[in-house]
Structure formats: structure tokens, C-alpha cells
């Protein structure tokens, strides 16, 4: 478990508002996870249609970028979702 | 005693999980920023898309600016904002610096510079943050340098080999330098984007002054949208 041990890096906490804030967090989750995935699918699809199918190597960058965005986001989405599920179990 | 301890323990658990989630929430928010490269896929040839490309980023930034001013001045309660850090209590939030950096890059820099710099802020910065917690500061910078190097190589792969190598090196050094900025009024989320961008721009101007075309072809092409 990561511990924020310096005052500077600590997050602002509020007991009264925490439920409201958690709802905000849950509200944004689908957008934060779906949009980058859609963008990477969009890039990979463009590479496939205009690059791979037409034999045009100019679009290879879009494939690489799509993969980077997808993997980069999954790297943080998975632990975030895992702890979101865990937290919901704790609060239930 | 049990009756008293049970709610205390439950509240403690909730707060701990909130603490942890704010951490991951910020990381996910950072990574989400990489979606903005879609800007380059939107064609300028369609009038309404060109209009949105021109006005949406600056409008969102202006709205965030006024929201932050209102929060810092106490007009809006800070408790409405999730995942803010202690040092952001009396200063505008990092997300405003982050968004400003992205908007400046999208508007004023060529795609070949803007895309890797955005990726550095969105992906390399949280990776460096995680590496700092797990391995230490020096190791985090080394990992960050390698990750940024990958982003610059991928974006500049169409350039001549020497141009690609020099640009990737300059860009990665700039990103790590930008990340190491530690001033309360200037955020690393802004500097990690603008430092490599300005260094690369100087490199480009210098090389082009010698009569060499250094800027490679862009890697993202406007999409052929079905409508």
C-alpha cells in the first residue's frame, strides 16, 4: 500500500463531504476509462483501414501511438478500478 | 467499548481508501489527458469541426481558470474538488497547469513536438510518480527518461536517424528537467510539457538555420470521417 508520508503530498480530506466527493469520482470513472480506450481504438482502426489495408506505411505511427495510449491508460485504470471495487465492498 | 470502536474503525477504513483512491484518481486523470491527441485526427476541412477545434479547448481552459480562482478565493468550497493536494489549498490546482500546457502545445507547436510532450505529461509523469514511491528519486528519473525517449522516438521515427536521436535525447532531458521543477507557483505538470517543447523548438530553429529540414512528417493524419 502506498503511504503519502509528506505533508505536501497529502490530499485534502473532508469527513462531511467525502460521500459527495466519492460520487463525483464514480461519475467521472466511465469517461476517464472509456475515452482513452476509444481514442486508441480510433487510431488503430485508422492505421488498419488507411495504412495496413492499402499497404501505406505512413500510418504506422498511428498504430504505435494507439498502442501506447491503450497500454499507458490500462496501467493506471486497472489498479484504480480494483480499488474502487474494493472500496465499495468496504463501504457496503 | 465495541460500540465506540466499530464506527471509528469503519470511518478510518473509509478514509484510508479515500486517500488511496485520490492517488489513483489523479493518476487516471493524468493518463486520460493522452486522449487529447485526437485533436489531430479531426479534419480542419469541415467548418464546424474547425470551429470546435478552435474554441472548445480555450473555453474549457477559461472555465477551469475561473473555477480555480473562485476556489482559491473561497467563493466555491474546496471540498467540491476531488483529489486536491494540501499544497493546492491556497494555489490553483495542478490540473489547470496541466490543461494550460496541453492547450499551448495544441495551438502553438507543431504536432511532432506537441504529441510527445503531451504523452510525457500524461503517461511519463504518473509513471515517474509511481517509480519514485517504489524505487526512489534517481531511479524514477532514469525510468522517466527512458519512457520519454520512447515517446520521442515513436513520434520522430520518420525523421533522419541522427535528427531522431538528437531530438529524442533533447526532448527526454527536457521532460525530466521539467518534472524536477519544485516551485509552488509553477507546476511540474506544466513544465514537463513546455520545457521539452521549447528545447525542441530551439533545436529545430538551429538546424533549419543551417539549411537542414529536420521536422519529420506528422504521425497522425486527419481522419476521413463518414459524415
In short:
The complex is a heterodimer of chains A (92) and B (227). With 92 residues, chain A is an all-alpha fold. Chain A has helices spanning 18-52, 60-91.
Q: How many helical stretches of chain B?
A: 7
Order of helices and strands of chain A: HH
Q: Kindly report how far apart the N and C termini of chain B lie.
A: 68 Å
How would a crystallographer describe the biggest sheet of chain A?
none
Rg result of chain B: 20 Å
What is the 3D form of chain A?
A: elongated
Name the assembly state.
Answer: heterodimer
Quick one: how many beta strands of chain A? 0
How big a fraction of the residues of chain A is strand?
Answer: under 5%
Q: Assign the structural class of chain A, choosing from mainly alpha, mainly beta, alpha/beta, alpha+beta, or little secondary structure.
A: mainly alpha
Q: Cα distance, first to last residue of chain A?
A: 21 Å
Which structural class should the secondary elements of chain B be placed in?
Answer: mainly alpha
| Low-pLDDT ranges of chain B | none
Strand content of chain B: under 5%
Number of strands of chain B: 0
Order of SSEs of chain B, N→C? HHHHHHH
User: Number of folding domains of chain B?
Assistant: 1
Radius of gyration of chain A, whole Å? 19 Å
Amino acid at each position: 500500500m502506498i503511504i503519502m508520508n509528506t505533508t505536501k503530498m497529502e490530499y485534502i480530506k473532508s469527513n462531511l463531504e467525502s460521500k459527495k466527493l466519492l460520487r463525483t469520482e464514480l461519475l467521472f470513472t466511465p469517461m476517464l476509462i472509456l475515452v482513452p480506450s476509444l481514442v486508441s481504438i480510433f487510431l488503430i482502426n485508422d492505421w488498419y483501414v488507411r495504412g495496413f489495408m492499402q499497404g501505406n506505411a505512413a500510418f504506422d505511427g498511428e498504430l504505435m501511438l494507439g498502442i501506447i495510449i491503450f497500454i499507458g491508460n490500462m496501467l493506471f485504470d486497472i489498479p484504480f478500478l480494483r480499488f474502487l471495487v474494493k472500496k465499495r465492498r468496504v463501504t457496503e | 467499548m465495541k460500540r465506540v470502536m466499530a464506527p471509528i474503525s469503519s470511518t478510518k477504513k473509509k478514509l484510508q481508501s479515500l486517500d488511496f483512491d485520490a492517488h489513483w484518481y489523479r493518476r487516471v486523470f493524468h493518463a486520460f489527458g493522452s486522449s487529447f491527441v485526437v485533436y489531430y485526427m479531426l479534419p480542419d476541412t469541415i467548418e464546424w469541426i474547425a470551429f470546435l477545434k478552435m474554441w472548445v479547448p480555450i473555453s474549457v481552459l477559461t472555465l477551469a481558470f475561473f473555477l480555480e480562482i473562485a476556489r482559491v478565493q473561497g467563493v466555491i468550497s474546496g471540498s467540491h474538488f476531488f483529489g486536491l493536494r494540501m499544497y493546492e489549498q491556497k494555489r490553483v490546482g495542478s490540473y489547470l497547469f496541466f490543461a494550460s500546457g496541453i492547450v499551448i502545445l495544441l495551438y502553438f507547436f507543431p504536432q511532432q513536438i506537441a504529441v510527445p510532450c503531451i504523452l510525457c505529461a500524461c503517461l511519463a509523469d504518473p509513471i515517474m510518480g509511481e517509480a519514485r514511491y517504489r524505487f526512489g528519486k534517481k531511479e524514477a528519473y532514469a525510468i522517466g527518461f527512458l519512457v520519454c525517449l520512447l515517446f520521442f522516438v515513436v513520434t520522430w521515427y520518420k525523421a533522419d536517424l541522427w535528427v531522431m536521436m538528437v531530438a529524442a535525447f533533447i526532448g527526454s532531458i527536457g521532460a525530466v528537467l521539467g518534472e524536477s521543477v519544485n516551485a509552488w507557483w509553477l507546476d511540474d505538470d506544466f513544465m514537463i510539457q513546455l520545457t521539452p517543447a521549447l528545447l525542441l523548438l530551439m533545436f529545430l530553429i538551429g538546424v533549419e538555420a543551417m539549411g537542414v529540414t529536420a521536422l519529420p512528417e506528422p504521425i497522425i493524419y486527419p481522419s476521413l470521417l463518414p459524415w
